[in-house]
Amino acid sequence: MLRNKQCSAVEILNDVNERIDKTENNIGAYLSFNENSLLHAQTIDELLAKNEELSYLAGIPIAVKDNISTKGIRTTCASRMLENYIPPYNATVINKIQDAGMILTGKTNMDEFGMGSSTETSFFKPTHNPHNTDYVPGGSSGGSSAAVAAGESILALGSDTGGSVRQPSSYCGVIGLKPTYGRVSRFGLIAYASSLEQIGPIGKCVKDVAMLQTIISGYDKYDSTSCAHKTEDFYKLLKADVKGLKIGILKEYFSSDINEEIKNSIYNTLSILKKNGAKLKVVSIPMSVYALNSYYILASAEASSNLARYDGVKFGYRTPEYNNLSEMYIKTRSEGFGDEVKRRIMLGTFVLSSDYYEDYHKKAKKMQAVISNEFSDILKDCDILVSPTTTDTAFKIGERINNPIKMINNDFLTVAANITGLPAINVPCGKSSKGLPFGMQFISNKFNEQLLLNTAYAYETYIDGFDFGLKLD
Ligand code: GLN
């Protein structure tokens, strides 16, 4: 409509802002708003009026998780530690979306430093699930998924260290993609566990997600782990076809712990894919049951190292009263970090300590290699692997926040993609009898985001578009 001059970028932004005015009080998806969004939308309209050649997402609003650095706009990681931090530079993905002419609406709520699965560990406030505000939106990118589901933005960026794009997308009934490790620059993403995390797009239809993934992909000289792999135009190459596609059903991920409604809905989806020519087989990855244990050791170890920089000297919060340097460090970190972050720092320091390194961290690294080998063996025979994204639908706010083990178990199905670096996508798959959405997960070989998107697109086309979102008035 924008390209055909049936509407303007300003009108789209006004629409989104109207939704924000209507729903944000009940949802709480945002931590701050971009004061210059209207100005940017006007600039795009002027360029469009001059028939300038612009990217396909020029003029489209996007919300960004608050651990992605935005020059001049507060970036907090939902932590007291960074409550007043204003980055002096942009993350590479921010430069990319701005060059593409996208309109930043604001920064979204999250679990503190990405640690959590419900957005409840945010220092500022919880975010509510737009499908039922008594429930969590998932996490840690809960603000981003909730914003898209509630129509408070068209697209969003999240980050996924152990499932934080896919899990909230499952709980909120939207699409979320975790790209191959190295596909998207992490420069300017405030680090939690650097070897596991990627920034990924969240949207309501596959085309949108394919466009955004195309824009943010590519080598970046400022991120030494970014890959020089060729970036295709995922959108232009989208194909709704699964003929001959070999789909492996991950046996261990359909265990008795998984909600029956979710399993049945996925079986139903698989029968649709089969009818359209996909070939199904059940495959096993026995060691993947240790993925969760390995993940929490590796992620905490990296977190304890990455978060050492918050010392009250170089960044962020400093305690107002102290008598000496050591007291300043202790008080600053005790007051600046929340409980979940402290738990990770302590666990990470423990598994890296000289007495326990061999027993924990080294074993987790070995297990990472074993699991990676299992996945690459299976992916020699299968094009796509399928599983539920989450063991259940969203839980109630407050229900698990004091039970860290239960919260952690929640990540059982998503962490393997981070440990192995493989790309994975959450695709909406249905709604439970309680009216809460859930998704399924596709995993493919490294750098084969195109196949993930094509499979999701094929499914979306066969069922005539996803209808699990909220009915927006
Ligand atoms: N829930 C997981 C954790 O707390 C994943 C978080 C993430 O992907 N950022 O570590």
Could you list some keywords that capture this structure?
binds glutamine, Amidase signature (AS) enzymes, single chain, alpha/beta, 473 residues
What does this structure look like?
The chain is built from 14 helices and 11 strands. It is α/β, with parallel strands linked by helices. The protein has a domain of 277 residues: Amidase signature (AS) domain (Amidase signature (AS) enzymes). The protein has an 11-stranded mixed sheet with strand order 1-3-2-4-6-5-10-11-9-7-8, with helices on both faces. Strand 10 and strand 11 form a beta hairpin. The longest helix has 21 residues. The radius of gyration is 21 Å and the shape is globular. The mean pLDDT is 96. The structure holds glutamine. Glutamine binds next to loops.
Give a topology summary.
Blueprint: H1 9-27, E1 30-33, H2 37-49, E2 61-65, H3 92-99, E3 103-108, H4 142-149, E4 155-160, H5 166-172, E5 175-178, E6 198-203, H6 206-216, E7 246-250, H7 260-275, E8 279-283, H8 291-306, H9 325-336, H10 339-352, H11 361-381, E9 384-388, H12 404-409, H13 415-420, E10 424-431, E11 437-444, H14 449-462
Parallel strand pairs: 2-3, 2-4, 7-8, 7-9
Antiparallel strand pairs: 1-3, 4-6, 5-6, 5-10, 9-11, 10-11
Helix pairs in contact: 1-2, 6-14, 8-10, 8-11
